[in-house]
Amino acid sequence: MTETGPSRIQSEKRAAILGAALEVFAAEGFRGATLDRIAGEAGLSKPNLLYYFPSKEEVHEALLSGLLDLWLAPLRRIDPDGEPMAELLGYVRRKLALSRSHPRESRLFANEILQGAPRIGPTLSGALRDLVEEKAQAIAAWAETGAIAPVDPRHLIISVWALTQHYADFDVQVRAVLGRDDPLDGAEAHLEMLFERLLAPRA
């Protein structure tokens, strides 16, 4: 490290370690992953890896920290002043796009949750809960004005998570059932129809 920050080579090695760790953690989970495996995947020696990350826990926490920023970005973009249906369907599309572009990150997050969220529990009950509450208030206001159908806003957000992240977290199952190379083929149109019907204002 220099006084002004990491050098280009240091940044590249750190990125290589995190990329390798993502592959290993997504495949093996936290317990099954080892620093030896991560180092080998990154093309580095274990001592070299330990120079950047002193423990497996620190590698994992660095990945999860970056992942949470990525994962919450689509929810943050919901604009209370926007057109309600467009805002909510846009959120569905953005979450589905993440399942397509970042399936390993989705599985890493799912593995952490299945283990009881030992490393990101405080974030889930803190920053995530606060963000959900903020957006839930906007959704509730839309429902109260009749712009969308009456709906429990928190369960609506959870439903979006479930119906979009499933395509990444259960990719093998989806491919087997659909018999397609692209498991998301047709998914966007289906989910838009589903949520549009659910949220359409009552006559």
UniProtKB/TrEMBL annotation:
Residues 34-53 bind DNA. GO terms for biological process: negative regulation of DNA-templated transcription. Keywords: DNA-binding. It holds the Pfam family TetR_N. GO terms for molecular function: DNA-binding transcription factor activity; transcription cis-regulatory region binding. Residues 11-71 form the HTH tetR-type domain. This is TetR family transcriptional regulator. It comes from Palleronia aestuarii.
